[in-house]
Amino acid sequence: MSARTKARKRALDMLYGADVRDQPIHVILTAEAARAAHEPAREASWLYAREIVDGVFDHAAEIDEQLETYAQGWTLARMPVVDRAILRIGVWEMLFNPQVPVAVAIDEAVEAAKQFSTDDSAGFVNGLLGKIAQANAVS
């Protein structure tokens, strides 16, 4: 598993945890930073995970607007928490991180959905991120 894939998993854990526990993201980030300080082997994944979480937080309104606009028949509240976190990471990578190709962002999100969510989630994530990519003309 690549360092970036591990970082996405860490970011997913943080976003999911903040959502489920209804905690501010800075509380989760502080706890993860303390953990990362004691695990130097995980430093590479920590740095990108932090970048993801900060990016999702900084662009939350735009990301959620994209999800609400293109998720036909689904509100954010209706989406499973893990799917919502995966989608937020995917949208941030596609729209706000030019270092990640759109195809990679979508593929990583689909793989995360296969691994951590329901049987139907991978198709939902793929379709929704594809619509957002097309609508925003990112490639």
UniProtKB/TrEMBL annotation:
Any one GO molecular function term: RNA binding
UniProt keyword list: RNA-binding, Transcription, Transcription antitermination, Transcription regulation
Chain segments annotated as coiled-coil in the UniProt record: none
Superkingdom in the source lineage: Bacteria
A biological process from GO: transcription antitermination
Short name of one Pfam family: NusB
Domain NusB/RsmB/TIM44: 6-133
Gene Ontology annotations for the cellular component aspect, listed alphabetically: cytosol
Matches recorded under InterPro entries: NusB-like_sf (IPR035926), NusB_fam (IPR011605), NusB_RsmB_TIM44 (IPR006027)
Database matches in PANTHER family: ANTITERMINATION NUSB DOMAIN-CONTAINING PROTEIN, N UTILIZATION SUBSTANCE PROTEIN B-RELATED
Reported function: Involved in transcription antitermination. Required for transcription of ribosomal RNA (rRNA) genes. Binds specifically to the boxA antiterminator sequence of the ribosomal RNA (rrn) operons.
Family: Belongs to the NusB family.
Entry protein name: Transcription antitermination protein NusB
Taxon lineage: Bacteria, Bacillati, Actinomycetota, Actinomycetes, Micrococcales
